[in-house]
Structures are given as structure tokens and as C-alpha cells.
Write a structure and sequence with these properties.
The protein is mostly helical. It has ten helices and two strands, in the order H-E-E-H-H-H-H-H-H-H-H-H. The chain is globular and about 65 Å long.
């Protein structure tokens, strides 16, 4: 038994979609997409074919938040690797490794992350690991992954388009090389158009 209103709403929405009623919103007798646009919910439908239960949503949300540590760790290593050979404290490989581990531990120890994981279910929570994945992909120059992660981030909720467009502007202003700046401009324009539509 739960008193979390949104968990019940999303459980019902995904259950409806798994049974052929495309995200029907019985409270308002309309499609949920008339209230919020979160196409990421399509990814949960196959899980409901196997195990249709609210715990499925909560577990998937917690797993996604935990997986955010992977792109965070990879991005941290890439940034700290630039300090290799410097005379400062980060010139030491051991200290760079320790700093990377400390940052990941801080991510897991973040009380806000724990609260998001334990409180209810919201598709916007997936924006945390996906934002980290977009940044890491850009940092590594993995452009196909960058576009896929950006699309998934846009699919979390309509307001995520603002974050994606802002990241595109960041690449335009601070990107390394002309190609990265072009990709940033394309991302900013696409995300802005998505938000307007």
C-alpha cells in the first residue's frame, strides 16, 4: 500500500499502454500526453508485459539513478586525465583515481538523489543519469551515443528540452573545434523546436 499519488498515476498509465490503451488517463478521460509529454514512458511498457506492478517503476528508476555513476566516473576520468603530468596534486595518478572515486561516492551519498529514488516515481528523475550520459558522450566525442542520449533526455518530460538546448549553447560557446560547435548549434535548435512544438 502506498500513499504516493504519482506512483499510482504512472502505474495506471503504463498498465493502460501495456493493454492497448495508449497512456489513457482515466482521471481526466484523455491521453496523458495531453497533460505532460513524456514519451520515455514507452520504454516501460515491455516491463509491464512481464511484471505489471508499481514496484517495477520504482526499481527501474532506482537502477537508472545508480547507473548515472558510470558516465559520471568516465567523464571525471577524462577531465582528470588532462592533469596528467602536471606539477600539482592531480599530476599523481593515485590522487586522480582517488578524486574520481570520491566524486562517485559523493554522487551516491547525495541525500537528494536518495530522496528522488525513494519518493514516488517521475519520468523527470531519468534526466539525472541521462544528462550525465550526454555530457560524457560529448566529452569523449562519441557522437552517435550523444544524439541517442540527447533524444532520451528530451523524452523524459517537456521541460527537459530547456536543459538540452542549454547544453547545445554551452557546446557552441565552449566546444573544442568547429564540428563540436556545429553539433551544439544543431542540438540547441532541435531542442528549442521540440520545446515549442
Amino acid at each position: 500500500v502506498t500513499h504516493f499519488y504519482d506512483l499510482g498515476v504512472y502505474d495506471n498509465l503504463v498498465w493502460q499502454a501495456a493493454h492497448g490503451r495508449l497512456f489513457y488517463y482515466p482521471q481526466y478521460e484523455m491521453s496523458f500526453f495531453g497533460d505532460h509529454f513524456a514519451p520515455l514512458l514507452f520504454l516501460f511498457v515491455p516491463f509491464y508485459w512481464v511484471f505489471a506492478h508499481p514496484c517495477t517503476l520504482v526499481v527501474l528508476q532506482s537502477v537508472a539513478l545508480a547507473l548515472g555513476a558510470i558516465p559520471l566516473s568516465q567523464a571525471t576520468r577524462a577531465i582528470l586525465a588532462r592533469a596528467s603530468g602536471s606539477t600539482g596534486p592531480l599530476g599523481s595518478e593515485l590522487l586522480r583515481e582517488a578524486a574520481g572515486i570520491a566524486l562517485v561516492l559523493l554522487y551516491f551519498a547525495n541525500v537528494s538523489l536518495l530522496h528522488i529514488s525513494m519518493f514516488d516515481f517521475h519520468p523527470i528523475a531519468f534526466a539525472i543519469p541521462l544528462s550525465l550520459a550526454v555530457y560524457q558522450a560529448a566529452l569523449a566525442g562519441r557522437w552517435p551515443r550523444f544524439w541517442v542520449m540527447s533524444a532520451l533526455l528530451l523524452a523524459c518530460m517537456e521541460e527537459c528540452a530547456i536543459s538540452v538546448a542549454t547544453f547545445g549553447v554551452f557546446l557552441v560557446l565552449f566546444g573544442e573545434g568547429r564540428n563540436q560547435r556545429r553539433r551544439g548549434a544543431a542540438l540547441a535548435v532541435a531542442a528549442t523546436a521540440y520545446f515549442v512544438v
